[in-house]
Amino acid sequence: MGRWIAVGKAPGWDDLKRFSTEMKDTSQWRIDPKSTVTSVYALGDGRMIAEYHGPAVTEFEDWLKKKGWSVENVTPIKHIAKTGEIWKVV
Fold it and tell me: Quick check: 2 and 55 in contact, CB under 8 A?
């Protein structure tokens, strides 16, 4: 299963109420049984970062379009270090 990060802007998502509406319900981040947007961060400079786990990047790109993101880039994740655990993704 691959992992990707997207960086971009999503109009209105800097507002916590709108951000919550877009992401709170499982159906908003669970694309299908094998594809999930696991994290979305609203940065102080107005940009957003989203992390996706799934079999193909195309599902993530479709989700970003559906959500109205203006995407700067989508890139695969190679390595992860999280709370002391480090692993190679692909």
Answer: yes
Question: Residue 10 in 3-state DSSP?
Answer: coil
**Residue 87 near residue 79 (C-beta atoms within 8 A):** yes
What's the pLDDT band for 89 if we cut at 50, 70, 90? low
* CATH entry, 2-88, from 3.40.50.300, 3.30.70.3090, 3.60.10.10, 3.90.1300.10: 3.30.70.3090
pTM confidence score:
0.86
CA 88 – CA 10 distance, rounded (Å): 29
Model pLDDT for residues 9-31, shown as the tens digit of each residue: 998 888 888 888 888 888 899 99
Distance, in Å, from the CA atom of 56 to the CA atom of 36, rounded to the nearest integer, reads: 11
Cα 55 to its chain centre, rounded Å, is 14
